[in-house]
Write a structure and sequence with these properties.
Number of domains: 2
Radius of gyration: 36 Å
Protein name: Adenylate/guanylate cyclase domain-containing protein
GO molecular function: adenylate cyclase activity
Distance between the termini: 35 Å
Largest sheet: 8 strands, mixed
GO biological process, one term: cyclic nucleotide biosynthetic process
Keywords: Membrane, Transmembrane, Transmembrane helix
Strand content: 5-15%
Structural class: alpha+beta
Pfam family, one: Guanylate_cyc
Shape: rod-shaped
């Protein structure tokens, strides 16, 4: 088993920010496209979440506007807020609908940020009209705090660049409002240096406004750094999830799960397990392979394994290894169970039945096929990793492993399709196995490579 536990750091996608150290990420290996696809899928789901949250925000703004007292009548004053809220509602619905249909391009997301901030600052700007005050009146509106909601919304995507753009847009928007309040009436100098006057009038204290801008930028910077760290963890997590999924293609799901969740993996660490070992083989495959074209032989193996492996997994078996046309399966080794022997015999019964139908179907199609043999042995085995540090393989070791392999070959001698040791058969019956057909016993059978007679049961 190739060591697949190497750690790969995710690549930063914020290179556009330049070589500034605060936004730099450590050198990282190129991630495969399938990992990037998983990350993009997460981002697409996040964009839909952001759309719903934006819809909630516009609903809150509309509710606040409706309940807020007004000092003017609808006929004598222009009201920008209803128009702004209506336009924003339409854009939010468009954005939400597109998020469910396509992957939103970056330029659209930047436009969305600009519209978010424009809505907020138009609402704040309108306050001096709504309450018939000078423009500096809106600078004291607590509605500015909503800017942090819009910045935080962009954090959900785990891309620092969108947070940075949102923060810069917010800072620029507030500076624009401050400039408007100061310059809208050149005859009225609104600037003051008196803090009490600032709090008790519509005067403008530049230091206080700059503090707000600095707060926006600092929060933006902190969020951007936090998101870069969180994105590294996100990509790493996705990469590990994809790797775990791919491991299950090379190993049984049980072994893949064991690798992913083990605290330590190394040679010299083993576990004693009571298990059943099944060996499958196509009788006469070697001679058939000598007469087949390579592609034809591989297609035969693929068809055979595609029939057998789902049955093995259905009954809780774990494929230990493929040995050409041979398949070694364990029950109760990688995943402990109280019915390992019964599961193994149920699996063998179904395999023999399915293999018979598969052979007939292949021959009817004019494709080569051979009968499938099986053998079952049970006992105490050792489950663990063998090899050296850069080349590991999870496997099982024990007398039952060797005996099962020898019994599979004994099928040719005995003229049977499936054999089990009497010990495995009796244990399976105690665990709830009921044979679907008569099973004959072969007492004290001589098996090649076994130094003592073995009591056997012919299955099916």
């Amino acid at each position: 088993m190739t060591n697949m536990m190497e750690t790969t750091q995710p690549r930063s996608l914020t290179g556009w920010l330049g070589p500034l150290p605060i936004f730099s990420a450590p050198p990282q290996a190129k991630l495969p496209e399938r990992v990037h696809r998983q990350v993009r899928a997460q981002q697409d789901a996040t964009e839909r979440l952001i759309g719903w949250l934006q819809l909630t925000v516009v609903a809150i703004f509309a509710a606040l506007y409706i309940v807020a007292p007004k000092t003017f009548t609808a006929h004598d004053t222009f009201q920008p807020v209803p128009y702004a809220l209506s336009a924003y509602f339409g854009f939010t619905m468009l954005r939400l609908g597109l998020a469910y249909r396509i992957r939103l391009p970056d330029w659209f997301l930047y436009i969305s940020i600009a519209i978010d901030m424009a809505l907020l600052f138009v609402l704040i700007w309108s306050f001096h009209l709504q309450y018939e005050q000078s423009a500096a009146f809106y600078l004291k509106a607590p509605t500015l705090l909503y800017v942090f909601i819009f910045i935080a919304l962009r954090a959900l995507r785990f891309e620092a660049r969108f947070v940075v753009v949102a923060g810069l847009a917010a800072a620029a928007g507030w500076l624009t409002l401050v400039g408007y309040a100061i310059l809208v009436d050149p005859r009225d100098n609104m600037i003051t240096r008196n803090y009490v006057e600032y709090l008790t009038s519509n005067s403008v204290l530049l230091g206080a406004e700059f503090d707000k801008v600095i707060s926006i930028l600092v929060v933006t910077g902190i969020l951007a750094v936090a998101i870069m760290r969180a994105r590294a963890l996100l990509v790493s997590s996705v990469a590990e999830g994809v790797a775990a999924h791919d491991l299950a293609r090379f190993f049984s799901p049980e072994v893949a799960s064991h690798i992913v969740h083990s605290e330590e993996i190394g040679v010299g660490i083993g576990e004693l397990r009571d298990a059943a070992i099944v060996n499958l083989d196509m009788r006469g495959f070697t001679g058939l392979a000598e007469t087949c074209q390579p592609d034809q032989m591989m297609q035969l193996l693929a068809s055979y394994q595609a029939e057998m492996v789902p049955i093995i997994r259905k009954h809780g078996g774990s494929v230990d290894k493929f040995l050409g046309d041979g398949i070694m399966v364990t029950f109760g080794a990688s995943r402990m169970t109280e019915t390992y022997a019964a599961d193994a015999l149920r699996c063998v019964e179904e395999i023999i039945s399915v293999a018979r139908d598969w052979e007939k179907r292949m021959l009817a199609e004019g494709r080569p096929a051979r009968p499938v043999n099986a053998a079952v042995a049970s006992g105490c085995i050792v489950f663990g990793a063998v090899g050296e540090r850069d080349r590991l393989e999870y496997t099982v070791i024990g007398e039952a492993v060797n005996l099962s392999a020898k019994l599979e070959k004994h099928n040719a001698v005995a003229g049977t399709k499936a054999l089990a040791t009497s010990e495995a058969y009796d244990l399976a019956c105690r665990q709830g196995f009921t044979p679907s057909a008569r099973c004959d016993r072969l007492d004290s059978a001589g098996v090649a490579g076994v130094g003592h007679p073995v009591d056997l049961v012919v299955l099916g």
